[in-house]
Design a protein that fits this description.
133 residues; mainly alpha; single chain
């Protein structure tokens, strides 16, 4: 039983790191877009607002990747918890469960990511329209 618990602890550590990375990406997304807004206002250079789309979309895609990896490892955790103790091999490969989890592109457009990152994109659009008109 000790080997199963250790393997589950390893997988849980990866899940925790993916969750933390996702949280940090959301924070950096807001900070980066806000900084570009400040540069646009400070220099009266509207192009910084257009540039804000790139990091917002990049952070969205990266956040989706981390959420996808987290889902894969959660599924891996479930599979390992069902295994017999003698079958524990300490593998961290998620390819065996990849067909049981939504694909990356579906995860990127999941409800939670659409709400958060969509609101960041909408904010950029609103600021862009306010500045233009």
């Amino acid at each position: 039983m000790d080997s199963k618990i250790e393997h589950l602890k390893m997988i849980q550590g990866v899940i925790n790191r993916m969750s933390i990375n996702s949280f940090l990406l959301k924070g950096w997304s807001v900070v980066f877009v806000t900084a570009l807004f400040a540069l646009a206002a400070n220099n009266s250079n509207v192009s910084f607002i257009y540039i804000a789309y790139f990091p917002a979309l990049a952070f969205w895609a990266l956040d989706g990747y981390f959420l996808w990896q987290e889902k894969l490892y959660r599924k891996k955790y479930d599979k390992v918890s069902e295994k017999d103790n003698s079958a524990i091999d300490f593998s961290m490969d998620t390819s065996s469960v990849s067909n049981e989890v939504d694909s990356w592109d579906k995860v990127v457009f999941s409800k939670t990511l659409r709400l958060f990152h969509g609101s960041v994109i909408a904010t950029i659009l609103i600021v862009m329209l306010v500045v233009i008109f």
